[in-house]
Amino acid sequence: MVSLLNVVAQTAEFSDKAGLGLAGAAIGMGLAVVGAGIGIGRIGGQAVEGIARQPEASGKIVPNMIIAAALVEGVAFTAIILSFVCFLLAK
Amino acid sequence: MPLILAMSDPLEHVLPHRYFGIPIHLFGIGGTFWVTNHIIMMLVASLMMLTIFPAMFHKVDSSAPGGWKNFFEFVLDFLRCEVFRPVLKDYTDAFLPFLWTMFFFILFCNVLGLIPLAQIIEIVTGGRVKHLGGAATGAITTTATLAFITFIFIHVQGLGVLYRALRTGTYGHHKPYPPQERPGLAGYFEHPHAGEHMSVGKALVFTPGLYLWNFAPHPFHDKGVVMDVSMWSALLVMELLGAVIKPFALCMRLFGNMVSGHIVLAVLIGLIVAVPTIWAQLGVGVPIMALDLLIQLLEVLVAFLHAYIFTFLAAIFIAGAVAPEH
Hints:
The complex is a heterodimer. Chain A is mainly α. Chain A has one domain (about 1-90): Up-down Bundle (F1FO ATP Synthase). Chain A contains three helices and no strands. In chain A, helix 1 crosses helix 2 and helix 2 packs antiparallel against helix 3 (about 60-90). The two termini of chain A are about 25 Å apart. Chain B is built from nine helices and two strands. In chain B, a hairpin with a 2-residue loop joins strand 1 and strand 2. Residues about 175-180 and about 180-190 of chain B have low confidence and may be disordered. Chain B has helices at about 1-5, 35-55, 70-90, 90-115, 115-125, 140-170, 200-215, 225-275, 280-320, and strands at about 20-25, 30-35. The chains are: A mainly alpha, B mainly alpha. Chains A and B meet through helix 3 of A and helix 8 and helix 9 of B.
């Protein structure tokens, strides 16, 4: 982990635009995507499991899955936009 | 050629571009109101709505619809029966105009953003008029305004329904859930002001206070005043935060989805330009263009989906304010 911090610090020095703000924004966006991936993966998995148990209920399960996935994605997008704002503020 | 070079900056075609400014002086604050391409696209979307819907639906016609009328009737009926009525139950027809307008405005704005109008007009006019296109909902000001309008609508309608209930005396009759067998306290869960026909002044005075009182649930209603109010105030803080955060999330969700598709597309096309030789660019270009086509198809789905989700969530929030389930 210490060597990772070294890499981030060296990248911050190397970039003449925004330094640590750029690195922070990039790490923040990556973490947001990890959260979205876990959330939507779980939703998709449970939905498919429900369809496997009762295939004729797939007409009710799939729209609910899509709505739940869009809600989780909304949170991820909020994080991405706010970290982009941090990047713009750091310049 | 200038179009391709413009792709090297991925943000340029999603940011708003100013056309002309209108100086405004309101209550001593001066400044210019810049008309941007997003505002022009919003005007185009609203003009489309104002021409399509009155022209199609102005007379009551019970013959089988065909073509575009069929499509719009299907969407309107699906929204009313499958989406709004399970949520809003008796208040569906009261809030339909607002919710239908919201859905079609967001849908038309999103779909107009999918069409590359800016690039077509730039080629047709020989590079004179640039950036006359774009997703109007891809500007955070648009989505923030829509979310703010929804927030105001939710609370004004909640207060209005409560005022009407206080005036006509229908307020406060709700049965306890789960049903409690307490023979001596048959009417306990009725509010002290239940069933009272209030005058205009008294109803106006009581409405904000009662709205706030019903904003958060009372889980310890039957355990005395101190327990009730302390638990309620903790829940009230969370409910007030939620009332602000939910429209904020609506705004962010719509904005992020609309703008991120275009940015990803522009970044991928920028990857083609970044490769040095022309043969390498062709080699890399074919898979990237195939991927771009798939991403654009996904964007079409996302455009329809997020219009639906914004309206569906707005209906749920309206139902939460207007007909709270005790």
